Amino acid sequence: MDEPFDPARVTQALEHLPGWEGDASGLTRTYHFESFADAIGFMAAAAPRIDEMDHHPEWTNVYDRVDVRLVSHDVNGVSGRDVRLAEVLDELAGAVAGSS
């Protein structure tokens, strides 16, 4: 099990995660895509990777937008699993045309 990050470590992690915000209670990011199909495509592409990691985001989709919140519930805060998943999601979003 990963250990929870203290606030300073969360701040340090966020320096390497452009577009992400948060604090020791969770990390958040909103992805914008060119279309609903691109947004859903991103979520579908992410699903197998998320299952492999066995670490699932809280996320919602509204048209061309996907809002993501990451938190490790077992440690009641942010852990290394959240940072790793944020990196994976950024990589996958970057592969979708027109994401920001």
TrEMBL record:
Keywords: Lyase. The keyword Lyase applies. It is an enzyme of class 4 (lyase). It comes from the Bacteria. GO terms for biological process: tetrahydrobiopterin biosynthetic process. Its EC number is 4.2.1.96. It catalyses: (4aS,6R)-4a-hydroxy-L-erythro-5,6,7,8-tetrahydrobiopterin = (6R)-L-erythro-6,7-dihydrobiopterin + H2O. One of its GO terms (molecular function) is 4-alpha-hydroxytetrahydrobiopterin dehydratase activity. The keyword Secreted does not apply. Pfam families: Pterin_4a. Gene3D superfamilies: Transcriptional coactivator/pterin dehydratase. Belongs to the pterin-4-alpha-carbinolamine dehydratase family. NCBIfam families: PRK00823.1-2. This is Putative pterin-4-alpha-carbinolamine dehydratase. It comes from Aeromicrobium erythreum.
